[in-house]
Amino acid sequence: MNRLRALKKLFLLSACFAMLGISARASWLEEPVNPLHLQSTNGFFRSDISGTLDLEGYYIDRNPPGLLFGNNSFFNPRLSLFLDLQLGPHFYIGVQSRFDRGFDPKSKPGGDARADEYFLRYTPFDDARLNFEIGKFAMVFGNWVNRHDSWNNPFITAPLPYENVTAVSDGAAPASPAAFLARKNLADKKGLWLPVIWGPAYTSGGAVFGSARRFDYALEIKNAPISSRPAVWDATQLGWDNPTVTGRLGFRPDESWNLGVSASGGAYLLPSAAGTLPAGKSIGDYRQYTLGQDASFAWHHWQFWEEIIASRFEVPNVGNAGTLAYYVEAKYKITPRLFAAERWNQQFFGDVPNGAGGHAAWDNDAWRADTALGWRFNRHLQAKIQYSYNHQRGALQQGEQLFAGQITAKF
């Protein structure tokens, strides 16, 4: 009964804000005015401040899935502010700050304020063929990062490969193969274990990227791997003793298609794990290698995206732990304001030695179906609802059913 009341409250909140948006025809939401814009008379200096306000609610049946924290249904507000600073035709500074309950919903229930991105970009030419970037910014792997923000993501949550927590830990090595395999029978320990990719991975370092004719390229060197947790994305928290290299090559055969391949490799263990490693080994001896293929296609009212991601963790005292994950996503614009989206996700886990002469899968295979419906009231206000059904092989289920609602105001 309590869960039903929580679900009713979630959709009542969504409906209330929807009605508010409909009635706000004459408000600032309808006007393309930016009072936070500054520009010098000669155009050399330009500064813009923009942002989004997200009001989210989650109904969780048991063991919250993915990178949702907490054990009960909850409300999750988030304010994101963006500073875009242009200095002449060749220099650009970007900053993204957020005020919320943690980078991942409810990971810091008491509230949190931080800078998720801050970077300097230098473009030596007057076109996009070459760019240099340094600072803290999203990874270049795959194609989901380009649409991961709440305004452009048709869903409220990320695809399965970007949030499904596995049995791999970064703070300490498993004592034995048996201890490692026993983890798949436990609820996810999100403060200790890692997904294949942790969301957009706002790690720190430098990148070079650009576009030439129908080709895109990007290469970055960062302080942490694409699976690393937000606590170590800042260079002040984790240096470059064991850097991660990530790259992507893209090809656009025409205006409808965008194809790409990505690769990443780097040490995934934290310095705190050093004392738990076998004698003579260091954290640089254990790496995560990841390969990805992505594609997107647009046709009339349809948009499609897909990614296939294969990753291998070198696990101390165990061996190589491999996994393959993919998702296929479709969005259909029913009317100029109303859209619907469907996403199918799966992840498979390979075998590792069990310590008794045999082999066993190191985690539970999983699949998830996501359905979302969105309404864009105008260029500044949007509402979405999502239902997800998640199933893992085995007796333990991690958030089998999820209902979520989200209101986004863009300014």
CATH class: Mainly Beta
- The outline comes out as globular
- What is the rounded Rg? 22 Å
Return the CATH architecture: Beta Barrel
Name some characteristics of this structure.
411 residues; mainly beta; 16-stranded antiparallel beta barrel; 2 helices; 7% helix
Fold blueprint:
Blueprint: H1 2-23, E1 37-39, E2 45-60, E3 74-87, E4 91-100, E5 112-122, E6 131-136, E7 165-169, H2 177-182, E8 193-195, E9 204-212, E10 215-222, E11 244-251, E12 257-267, E13 287-299, E14 302-315, E15 319-333, E16 338-349, E17 351-353, E18 359-361, E19 366-378, E20 381-392, E21 401-410
Antiparallel strand pairs: 1-2, 2-3, 2-21, 3-4, 4-5, 5-6, 6-9, 7-8, 9-10, 10-11, 11-12, 12-13, 13-14, 14-15, 15-16, 16-19, 17-18, 19-20, 20-21
Notes on the protein architecture:
The structure is a single chain. This protein has 411 residues and is mainly beta. The chain has a single domain (2-410), classed as Porin, CATH 2.40.160. It contains two helices and 21 strands. It has a 16-stranded antiparallel beta barrel with strand order 2-3-4-5-6-9-10-11-12-13-14-15-16-19-20-21. β19 and β20 (381-392) form a beta hairpin.
